């Protein structure tokens, strides 16, 4: 791992208007680059927060036809940044999309992609009802990408509740972990900060998590509070609930220091 870099989270309040979402995200990505960010991350559902799974499917495209991906690839190349699109809905079969993240290099090439593994199916006591698996095909593989400063592990939103995923990423050499999200307000108020800091502490890695925030046009409320967390569990940057950019300077050497102080990644033992 070499050198420090500036990471940015772009917080959005996306709607079901893809063209509008691309414009809004692009403007904030430009703002992040103007603040000196070398790596910029957007949230889950960057370009589409549809009111339900059926509507979402009707508004999505296969990867080759998706209008957002070429726009973001061109923007990354123009700005000369690593651009991590937290997720796009990509058609992968009859009635199914992938909730897919893309990491785009400074030349505009796709360096890595990741399909969300764990899907959010829940009915809350307040009447909120989510069944992601009705329209989303789950991923089945870990994904990581080598940045100039170290290895970045990829995940999305609900994945955060499955710590073994992050331990596997850390043991695969990841110094940075991305958890772009669209957390509900209810679960976010209870668990967002705790889970983000726990994943950082358990892995001794930086955690970078861009989020959706506020009341969306379809009435859904997301928690916001995009976070950048250090490997000791300290919050380095945090947003509120409105669309914005947050940045933090990342020193990869801190990962080795923290893992040396608490070498738990080397202390696993078999048990029955």
The CATH class designation is Alpha Beta
Rounded radius of gyration (Å): 17 Å
Q: Mind telling me which CATH architecture this is?
A: 4-Layer Sandwich
Give the tally of structural domains. 1
The dominant shape is globular
CATH topology call: Nitrilase/N-carbamoyl-D-aminoacid amidohydrolase
Order of helices and strands: EHEHEHEEEEEEEHEHEEEEEEH
Number of DSSP-assigned strands: 17
Oligomer: single chain
In which range does the helix fraction lie? 25-40%
**Chain-averaged pLDDT:** 95
Features:
272 residues; alpha/beta; Nitrilase/N-carbamoyl-D-aminoacid amidohydrolase; 7-stranded mixed beta sheet
Layout: helices, strands, pairs:
Elements: E1 5-11, H1 18-34, E2 39-41, H2 53-58, E3 61-62, H3 68-79, E4 82-93, E5 96-104, E6 110-115, E7 121-123, E8 129-131, E9 144-147, E10 150-154, H4 163-171, E11 174-178, H5 185-203, E12 206-209, E13 213-215, E14 221-223, E15 227-229, E16 235-238, E17 244-250, H6 253-261
Parallel strand pairs: 1-2, 2-4, 3-4, 10-11, 11-12
Antiparallel strand pairs: 1-17, 4-5, 5-6, 7-8, 9-10, 12-15, 13-14, 15-16
Helix pairs in contact: 1-3
């Amino acid at each position: 791992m070499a050198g420090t870099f500036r990471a940015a989270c772009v917080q959005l309040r996306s709607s079901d208007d893809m063209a509008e979402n691309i414009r809004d995200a692009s403007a904030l990505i430009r703002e992040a680059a103007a603040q000196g960010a070398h790596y910029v991350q957007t949230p889950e559902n960057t370009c589409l927060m549809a009111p339900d799974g059926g509507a979402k499917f009707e508004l999505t495209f296969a990867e080759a036809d998706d209008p957002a991906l070429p726009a973001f690839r061109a923007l990354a190349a123009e700005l000369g940044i690593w651009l991590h699109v937290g997720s796009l809905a990509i058609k992968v079969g009859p009635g199914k999309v992938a909730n897919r993240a893309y990491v785009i290099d400074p030349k505009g090439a796709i360096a890595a992609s990741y399909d969300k593994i764990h899907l959010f199916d829940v009915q809350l006591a307040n009447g909120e009802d989510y069944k992601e698996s009705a329209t989303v095909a789950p991923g089945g593989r870990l994904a990581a990408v080598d940045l100039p400063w170290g290895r970045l592990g990829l995940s999305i939103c609900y994945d955060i509740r499955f710590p073994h995923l992050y331990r596997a990423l850390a043991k695969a050499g990841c110094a940075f972990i991305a958890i772009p999200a669209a957390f509900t307000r209810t679960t976010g108020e209870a668990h967002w900060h705790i889970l983000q800091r726990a994943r950082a502490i358990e892995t001794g890695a930086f955690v970078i998590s861009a989020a959706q925030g506020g009341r969306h046009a379809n009435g859904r409320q997301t928690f916001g509070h995009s976070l950048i967390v250090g490997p000791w569990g300290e919050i380095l940057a945090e947003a509120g609930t409105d669309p914005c950019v947050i940045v933090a300077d990342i020193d990869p050497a801190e990962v080795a220091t923290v893992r040396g102080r608490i070498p738990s990644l080397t202390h696993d033992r078999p048990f029955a």
